Task: structure prediction
Amino acid sequence: MLDTPIHLEYTFTPGIAQSRFLRGLAEGRFVGQRCPVCGKVYIPSRGSCPVDGVPTGEDVALSDTGIVTTYCVVNVPFAGQAIEIPYIAAQVLLDGANISFMGLIQGIPATDVRMGMRVQAVWVEPDELGPTLASVKYFTPTGEPDAPYETFEEYL
Ligand SMILES: [Zn+2]
Result:
């Protein structure tokens, strides 16, 4: 049995690659890293390529636009929820990246979100930026045509 709510204190010590990613967020930009062997760009990088096992030392400044590869419509309320339901949690493949990461989609009815939709990050105000994913408020549609399925199918 667990008594809730649960409180957990922890210290996160990022490595060099994740530090660069987090510092980029504090500047309102996405920083990934490229593998020198396969050329894939990871964001956030773990500091090495999981395929080749070599360090990913080259920083790559990525666009804050990308593609919704998959998504989930959240309709379940929970304690402490800060966002009105329904909302969308999506995997966003940033332009120039070879791995997607989780982001919220807003600015569009949940029923209109789709795979391949072009989106752009909406950042918090400059004085609110910090080394955290909370610097990205959400992603919103750019209005550009959807990306063809073939361009992102390998990232599903
Ligand atoms: Zn590689």
Helices lie at 16-26. The chain has one domain: 16-155.
